[in-house]
Amino acid sequence: MERKKLTINIQHGENVSAVLTLPPDKKKHYRAGVIVAHGAGNDMEHEMLVDFSDGLARAGYPSLRFNFPYKEKGLKAPDGQKKLEATWGAVFLHFQTDMPFQVDHVIASGKSMGGRVASQMAAEKQLPADGLIFLGYPLHPAGDLTKTRDAHLYRLDVPLLFFAGTKDALCDMILFRKVLKNLSAPWQLDVIEGGDHSFHVPKSLGIRQSAIHDRIVKTSGAWLDGQF
């Protein structure tokens, strides 16, 4: 496995950092590759995202994780929706056209905000992803189940893989299952018992965080194998 640091131009001379992780075989052609976006309160070096990207590469899927512009500047407040979308679009195009390999299918994935933005763009046909992986979907603000972010999900028509923790303050499981039942796209849900929005679980369960990350990678790899 090999990691390569990249710089990707977004718009008007603005750049973001990215890390491409290559499978050990370093082929010139792969069935699928995965782009990984971070959440609002972290960046591309979040432990789960690094383990996810590296694990998928070991399984034979090249992965590209990247920063949004506000993290490049050391800011806490996320960029506006238009800039987040512009960043996703530029990174997606870079992955399609400027890699040392070709892929038949590009999968968009993300933690919380990163996955939400990708799915909104996919629903509007602005991001031609062949599938979506959600590493914790922010269905609603913490503690407020009245403001759901589900309207666009019903317009998606590509395979979807969701990971959700039962203790996620931003994704009530009862409400989320109701949303999933009404989706027209094929979907799969992996529930992390006791997991919060980053899939941290109580120490009393005796489960190491690395084991949870391994589970996410294994499930994602099997899903990719079956879908693409």
Structure description:
With 228 residues, the chain is of the alpha/beta class. It is built from six helices and eight strands; from the N terminus they run βββαβααβαββαβα. An eight-stranded mixed sheet has the order 1-2-4-3-5-6-7-8, with helices on both faces. Helix 4 (113-123) links the parallel strand 5 (102-110) and strand 6 (131-135). The longest helix has 19 residues, at 209-227. The protein is globular, with a radius of gyration of 16 Å. The mean pLDDT is 97.
Question: Main sheet: which strands, in order across?
Answer: 1-2-4-3-5-6-7-8
Q: Could you tell me how far the N terminus lies from the C terminus, measured between alpha carbons in angstroms? A: 22 Å
Rg: 16 Å
State the helix count. 6
In terms of per-residue confidence, which ranges show pLDDT below 50 for 5 or more consecutive residues? none
What kind of oligomer do you see? single chain
Largest sheet: 8 strands, mixed
Order of helices and strands: EEEHEHHEHEEHEH
- Helix and strand composition category: alpha/beta
What is the overall silhouette? globular
Count of extended strands: 8
Mean pLDDT: 97
Q: Helical residue percent?
A: 25-40%
Portion of residues in beta strands equals: 25-35%
Quick structural overview:
The protein is α/β, with parallel strands linked by helices and 228 residues long. It has six helices and eight strands, in the order E-E-E-H-E-H-H-E-H-E-E-H-E-H.
Q: Any descriptors?
A:
eight-stranded mixed beta sheet, alpha/beta, 32% helix, 228 residues
